[in-house]
Predict the structure.
Amino acid sequence: DELLTAQSELVARLEQAERDLAAAAANRDAAPGSQETLLLLAMLQLRDAIRGSGPYEEPLRMLQNLAEGDAALTEITAPLERRAPAGLPSLRDLQAAFPEVARRLAAIELGEEGEGWSAGVLRRLSEAVNLRPVGLVEGDTPTAVAARAEVKLNDGDLEGALAEISSLTGAAAEAAAQWRGEAEARVAANQAVSALGAMVSERFRLTAGG
């Protein structure tokens, strides 16, 4: 008797689950575009989270769950996964970190220009104070590259600053490698979010009949 009762209860629960599933499907069909609406909201949450410098794992997972089986969206969000737990440096973080990079580049340039007592003094001074050019300086020396990059960076042109730093070679490139890696990660994330926003917004517009 107990076994029959348990079986009856199980059948009843399964039937109720099927009814709930059918009701959910009917509600979804009655509200066309609801999936696109959820994707749009999830994309906006992810965009806002990535703009900062904190983790964005939760909004990314939410969007990926909604986009499950969608190859185009999955491809766009895949590059964002690696940095999601720790987050990315913001533009302000990269701006704040750059003067130290520029000082190291100035010290390297002075070291390449000469040896001896005077060169050593200049290197130590360049590491302690701001002995470097600023502004849109011409030339391909490390300090000239750093000066142009800093102008672009402070103007909010991260991609332009990154292009300047990417032209460095040798010891100068090594000195700027960590900053460059962080800047590349930020630029890649910005590009992914931009592409994601364009795709989701267009789908929402088409569904809404706009």
